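Weekly structure sync, notes
Attendees: PL, DS, HV (note-taker this week)

Item 1: Chaperone protein DnaJ
DS walked through the input record. Source organism listed as Brevibacillus laterosporus LMG 15441. Sequence as pasted into the shared doc:
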Amino acid sequence: MKRDYYEVLGLGKDASADDIKKAYRKLARQYHPDVNKEADAEQKFKEVKDAYDVLSDDQKRAQYDRFGHQDPNQGFGGGFDASGMGGFGDIFDMFFGGGGRRANPNAPRRGADLEYAINIDFLDAVFGKERDIEIQREVECDTCHGSGAKPGTKVETCSRCNGSGQEEVQANTPFGRVVNRRVCSVCHGKGKQIKEKCTTCRGTGRNKVKRTIHINIPAGVDDGQQMRITGEGEAGVNGGPAGDVYVMFRVRKHDFFERDGNDIYCEMPINFAQAALGDEIEVPTVDGRVKLKIPAGTQTNTFFRLRGKGVPHLRGNGRGDQHVKVKVVTPTKLTDRQKELLRELGGLEDGAPLHEQPEENFFDKIKRKLRGE
Ligand SMILES: [Zn+2]
Ligand SMILES: [Zn+2]
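Item 1 (cont.): predicted structure, written out as tokens:
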């Protein structure tokens, strides 16, 4: 059963707005969960707050007087909202003189960081590259040098707060008269008043500008890695330092090379004769073509390692390796002469059919092995 709101506040139906406010303050102080450690304090505090929320609002009070708790149009006593008037913050401001917790609005503040993602080519990620990127950021207005005032006009000290950015408000509390401090309602804490606004920045003191910054893409950078460019972010406020720019690299795929960390993988087709008899083939690497010896009797899917032909280590020296997987390609178009030779060869086989290795996940297995897993 919900108690009558007037009863909760200990008032009659003819209570004035002032009576309601006074009763609420007294009871809120008494049952505030931070002050009152009794088990039902929070429940009582909520009850008091609900009653106050309704009775302090002329319209809600009139509805309540007519319909009581039964009014179908009102969600009486619903939430426990500390954000509006009468919430915890206000109560504590009211009783204990709030305002001290607010940061000084004139203190220097660092500008915001900016994030950019750029696409780079596979080979640029391997070897690094210089590049210009365009960023948009907020900087101090050139016209007014950040003051927000039209050049030639003066920025005046706020007459309400005398430049402190805070104003004092007196309030009556159960402890007597208390002086609260809060952010100045005229200058919103800046301590200054602008009579005529700068037309370039409309009084904000800041403008959005495009700027080109030169970056060095480091050799060895990998997809998803970030680089920080100090001091190129948004301008600071009140003389604070500028933020940073974070550039994230998105590395494009390559038609021939595949990258895994600092190692590069590729696949080279060879024919049956090369696999059986051995050969020397040319393999593309990121440094250009190199020769690779294929030993006689090489099976399909065999890996060969080209040391130092991988990606440079981002920090420190050295490079990864290139791993070349050879694929033995079975010919599909044969001349009569070739067919004859193969038939002859088949007859020489010592019974067992040429057995192919299963290919599923083989590439992945090898990669794991090479990583020592
Ligand atoms: Zn300006
Ligand atoms: Zn002011």
